[in-house]
Amino acid sequence: MAKKSHKQITLAQNFLKSSQLVRSLLNASSIESCDIVYEIGPGRGIITAELALLAHKVIAVEKDPILVQHLRKRFHGVANVEIVTNDFLQYHIPDREYKIFSNIPYNITAEIVRKILSTTPGPSEAYLVMQKEAAEKFSGTPNETQFSILAKPFFDIQIIREFRKTDFEPAPNVASVLLHIKKRHSPFIREDDIFLYGSFVRYGFGRWKHNLKLIFKPIFTYKQWKHLSRDLHFPLDAIPSELTFEQWLGLFDCFKQRVSVDKQMYIINRKTKMR
Length: 275
Fold this sequence. Notes:
2 domains; Rossmann fold; alpha/beta; 7-stranded mixed sheet; elongated; two-stranded antiparallel ribbon
């Protein structure tokens, strides 16, 4: 009975079927022979095998002990592959330069992405196969989200490939894509301004009023807002998701440079009370 239960859980996962497809994805990536690459939830090892041919070292982190046993048999004697029994969400990556390439479990996508973006040191780049709807939220496609606006000063996040459902076994019920996350060498927000930027963006997205002009009424005068609308090229009655990342940066720059310290503290205090 236990074996049947595990089989049902395993078959519920969506594995890429084609080594040729995996090879084409890796060839289009930045992964080179000098790279250390982590793989999250390697499953049967189809990506692991192709990574082993390309990268300097592959560390595959798998929490399912039965899959770990299979992987260790498959890659026994492959010197540059290490199989780690652990939950990636609990796993500590040593302080070194690394990249990630993985077909991640869809049910913990948000948790994995948050860990990747918040871990120090984080990967220089990550390539993640995931549900399209989630990837659109993270990348701000076609419209920006609070998540994307908070992340983009520090990471370039883009959908770079769409898959067919038949690329997987079993075929998933949802559309899947490859999301590319690349750490910026020079963040658009200074370290001293990170907390203020986060408070500003959350305030803009978190108010019950839909119109940014009304949301920011306690912060910007009508004259200031009219100038911002003209200079940054957005409608006077724009809602948060209508603004591009660059327009949000422009709004924050004006807020930081021209708005009084008292009003800046108002934003911080309001966000603290709303938690």
